[in-house]
Amino acid sequence: MLQNLSRFGSLLVAFGLFTTLAVAAARPIDSLIGAERAFSALSVAKGMRAAFLTYLADDAVVFRPGPINGKQSWLVRRDVPGVLEWAPEFVELSGAGDLGFSTGPWMYRASANAKEDHGHFVTVWRRNARGAWEVALDCGTSHPRPEHGPREVKVREGPGHAPPDSNAWKRSGFEVGAGMGRGGASIGVGTGAGVSVGSGGLGLGVGLFNAGVRSRADYEYRRTAHEKNQLMAAERTLTWHARKSAWERAFREVSAGDLRTDLDGALPVLGPDAAAAAFQGQPREATWEYRGNGVAKSWDLGYAYGLMIARARGAARPDTGAFAHLWRKDDTGQWRMVIAWESPFSKRK
């Protein structure tokens, strides 16, 4: 009898372990990690062109060196010889499970005996209408060999986000927000009215969430427009402080504590202070030209990208580079920068 109970207990332990593993494997963020790894595995097995054409969305953005349509870029390119592989070391998923970030090391070998090249990638993923993950934006940097390459790196996950409230559109709400920008005043009327006036200075945003909202779809459309406006206000806060004060103040105002900064030629650094130090050599008198942005359906993750045109004092020609900023909402509802990526164009001779 005791032997049978012992066996029964062992079965229960095994069943519990199996159930725990099954639940863990079913976590939504695991599908994002799996998509990134499958993307890399296809690159190793079939080549870069096949992998990128498989995983890039039709409107995906890549940088060559400025932002262009990635799918069209790879359609007209021949396959690149050699092997490119990568792995995620940091991932974050929206509460709606429709948008996610991934970043980590990559390694390229032109041939079996060739010297390895190294760098880091940053990818924005989104689910398509079929529920499959596809790449919305992809960029990267080159740098010396990191401590941990694609085969050694371990994944760290960002904070979890709650799913969106499906009944939020039925309730009234009121929101006031402020932003900094370039010159003049900025007023943003939020989700309810969906109006934004001005492009800089010290701004005030007011939103009546249920003003004229006719349906859930209408609410989501207006809320998305409002959140994009708030995200871009955070971008203007960054640029305003960079020009008027210093990089330290700029990153302190808008960054998350775990901000990751990827600048071409340097290993990634963590934290706002490290970001400010990394940007010390960059001219603060710059113009940021935004080419696009996006937010999750739960309005907790977002991104913006474009060109930064800077003219160093006394320089005859401006320096141009591409940038991408990835954002998350904090517990107070403020947009905070999670990843800052920048890559300068090759200087003209």
UniProtKB/TrEMBL annotation:
Composition skew (Basic and acidic residues), residue ranges: 144-159
Organism domain of life: Bacteria
Renumbered residue ranges of the record's region Disordered: 141-174
What InterPro entries has UniProt attached to this entry? NTF2-like_dom_sf
Q: What is this protein called?
A: Nuclear transport factor 2 family protein
> Which organism is the protein's source?
Eiseniibacteriota bacterium
